[in-house]
Every structure is written in C-alpha cells, then in structure tokens.
Amino acid sequence: MKTKMLQLVFLLSVLLAPLSFNAQIHMKGKVDIDMNKGLIGCELRLSNIPELTDYRIWINKGMNIKYFKNSDAELIQYDGFYSGKINGEAIEYTFVQDSLAHIPNEFNVTYKGAFPIYQNEFGPFDYKGAIAFNGETLRATEQTKWYPVIYNAKTDRILNSYSYELEVHIIGGNTVFINGTKPQKGEDLHFVSKKAHPLLLFAGSYDFVESNGDYIINTNVSKETSKKVFDNIEIIKSSLSKNLKLKFTDNIYLINHRAVNKRPKGSSWGFNTYPTFAFTGLDFNKILNEKGGFSNDINRYFGHEFAHNYFGNNVMSGKLGWFWLESFAEYLSYNIAEDLCGMDFLKQVLLGQLKYIKDDSFVPLAHVEKRSDINEKYRYIVGPFILKCFEDRFGRDKTNLTLQSLLKVSTTETLTLNQWKKSAVQGGVSEKDFETFETDFLVNEDFLQNVKDEILRNYSNNK
Ligand SMILES: [Zn+2]
In this predicted structure, what is the pLDDT of residue 249? Predict the structure, then answer.
C-alpha cells in the first residue's frame, strides 16, 4: 500500500513539475539606459502573475510612472501616485479598478527615472538597495526595485525572480549584464532567460573574462588568473554543498564594482544576487597568494557570500528575517574558516568578534518583535554565535541536518523558532536538549552572557 502511495506521489510530482515551472512570472520589454545622464527608462510587461488578493507592486521611488496598462493596452487606474507609501527603496502601487479586486495575470508598465552620477566624488552611503551610477558603471540590484517587484502581503513574500526577455539599449556604455545570462557587448542587446532569476542589472563600459561558463565581470584579469580564482571558489562551493547536501548547479558571475561612497583603503563589501556575487574594491589580480590560493580572510568572506546561495531571499521573511539571512550565512563562513583555514584561524575570528559586542545589549531572539530589533551586530556576530553554540552542543552533523530541513521549509514558509526546534528534532536533537538550549540562548534575558561564556570556554586560546 505504502509503495502504491509513493508511486502515486511520484507520478503526481512528475505531472505537476511542468505546471509549477509555467507558474513563473515572466517579464518582457525594453530597457533604455543613458550612462551619461543617469537615466533608466523601462517599458515592461509582466505576465503569468499568480492570483494574489493582498498585494503591492513595488517600483523604485526614483522612477516616474507614465502609466500602467492591461493586456488590451487600456489604462489601469492605480493608487500610490499621491501620498504614496514608501517601503524600503520603493513606492507601493495597487490597482483600483473594481474589476481588479486581485492582481491581474498580466499588466504593462512604462516609467522613467533619473539618478545622480558619482563621478570622481562620493555620496554619504552605498548599499545593495542603491541605484549606483559612478561614471563607469550602473549597478541596480533586485533590492532597488528598478523593475516591478510583486509583494504578497498576505504571506510576507517578495516575488522578484522572473524569467525574462529584454531588449536593452545603452548610450554611453558598451557592455550589459543581467543576472543569469552571460554579459554582452554592444549598444542594442537582447537577453533571454527561461530560468527565473532576481534581475541584477550591471551596465557600462567594462570588460569581462569567461572560464568554463563562469564569468568575472568588470575586470582585466587574464584567463589563467580567472581559472585559478574559480578553482578556489570551487573548493568553497563544494564544502558548502557537501554540508548542506544541495548542489551549486548554476554558472557563477563575479562582479567587481566601485562603491559610490568613500571606503577605507583595502576594505570591501559584497552582496549576492544568486548566481552573481558582487564585491567592491576587490582586485582579482591581487586576490591569489604566491601559492595560487585565497587568503584566509578571502576564504571566509567568500564563504559568507556563497552561503547566501542557500540562506538568501528564500529566508528573508518574518520578524527574524535578518537572523535567518545574515546569521546563518555568517555561521556557515565559520565552517569554511575551520575546514579550509584551520581551527587557529577560526579561534582568531571568533575571539576578534567577541570584542565588538563587549558593551552592547540585545533582545533574546524569542522576544524579538520587529525586524529592526536585530541590528548589524546582532546579525553578524550575536546570531552566528548562537548558531555556533548550537553546533558546539549538538555537533556538526546534527546541525547540518537541521539546516537542510530549514532550507526545505524556507522554500514555502517563513522560518520561525518553532520551526527551528522541529528541524532540530528531525535532525536528531532530543526535544529536551533543544529546550535547554532554547532557555539558555534564545529566551533567557541573560542569553548574551551565556553566549559569550560558551564561545570563550570553547575557543579561548588558553584552552
Ligand atoms: Zn550577507
């Protein structure tokens, strides 16, 4: 009976597979870029939009909407143009026609935006959500909402990975890259991806180098160097995929970009828009040591960024979003540090981070009420420490099984502490032991002291 059931489930999933592929939102249209004036103009059609009743359409606040139109090219009335609500980088739009109680399956939108160019000068900040023109390149990630992003308010999920077919016209530049397809040279370009990706746009005047289908973008490194870079990256990728039992299947795009704010010499920040990994101020010619390998710092830095291949947009949901997103990636970078660089390096990292949280106080995870309760230090130090304590109590194997289970859940649901417990128990941690861990590190008002004590106990040099 059981086998019959299994066969049926298998058959159903095979039958359903093509359907779920078709359920992908598709974006088609034209994108005009003027590098000299900092202009972006879009004429886009989104189709195959799932049925949503409580939705928002997010478009970057610097974009001026010309109109929304339906599939018959008729104007659609919309809210958001007056006293519009800003959410992050975007203004929220909704349709107001009576017949459109829910979002239509398809709509067209035309808009244009002008952005400052920071050529030989700097602005006060730069981050993944900024549309950055620096005189050479334009960087616009999915987080900027340079293209319409659909937000499902009911489930707090962002829909921003689309298959696409785009005509790009660029003035004042010679190369364009859209995440998921190879970069192209020219002024009138055609990009097609049947697979859905978050649409990072990187355009301007630059070169790129290819190695086995992987690319380094905006660089002048040789083929030989790029091969060595990707050989090193392969080691990080396979370490992560071995631990999490999920393969990296896509080609990788590495972007070197120049930030539009002034940064301390030698510092770098990166972000991930899978399968693209972007880094500021990283000279790929200088990234290899004499032996042709990465330094310990680069291994750990890349370890964090590539870990977002697993803990990425899928987990950025709910009030603990920052914990699932950044703390898990940072925790995984500890494992990369330990496995590729050795325990001495890991100890140095952990003890170094410990110093940064000497005088701070934080809300225990169980009492977090809003996303902003988890500030940068929480995301990048305290959260990863909590996970490290989890690993030190229950072992790497059970931790990996817990992470694998959380990743499965994250494809459809918002992660919660309750789910963490369920996944831990599935991974072989006894319910009682998890509850003790929970009390010490997730609930207790003194959790921070417990975390510090545990890290010091396990990793202090005197040990
Ligand atoms: Zn990160």
Answer: 67
Taking the centre of ligand 1 as the mean of its atom positions, its distance from the CA of residue 327, in whole angstroms, is: 8
How does pLDDT run across 26-81, given as a tens digit for each residue?
999 999 999 999 999 999 999 999 988 889 999 999 999 999 999 999 999 999 99
Q: How far is the CA of 342 from the centre of ligand 1 (A)?
A: 22
CATH code of residue 402: 1.10.390.10
**Do 55 and 87 have their domain in common?**
yes
Confidence class for position 99, pLDDT limits 50, 70, 90: low
- Range of 252's domain? 214-307
Question: By three-state DSSP, how is residue 379 classified?
Answer: helix
For all residues of the chain together, what is the average pLDDT? 91
Last residue in a domain, options 242, 273, 307:
307
Residues 342 and 272 placed together within one structural domain of the fold: no
Q: How close is the Cα of 66 to the center of ligand 1, in Å? A: 35
Q: What is the pLDDT of residue 414?
A: 93
Query: How many domains would you assign to the chain?
Result: 3
Span from the CA of 162 to the centroid of ligand 1 (angstroms): 22
Do both 321 and 446 map to the same domain? Answer: yes
Q: Is 299 left (phi over 0), alpha (psi -120 to 50) or beta?
A: alpha
CA of 379 from ligand 1 middle (Å) equals: 9
Are 360 and 298 within one domain?
A: no
Q: Is residue 202 domain-shared with residue 225, that is, in the same domain?
A: no
Q: 168 has which bridge partners?
A: 31, 189
CA of 305 to the centre of ligand 1 (A): 6
Q: Do 315 and 325 form a contact (C-beta atoms < 8 A)?
A: yes
Closest by CA position to 436, among listed 460, 454, 463: 454
How is residue 292 written in tokens? 């042709």
Distance 325 CA to ligand 1 centre (A): 7
**How many angstroms separate the alpha carbon of residue 146 from the centre of ligand 1?**
21
CA nearest to 155, candidates 55, 50, 19:
55
Tens of pLDDT, residues 345-389: 999 999 999 999 988 999 999 999 999 899 999 999 999 999 999
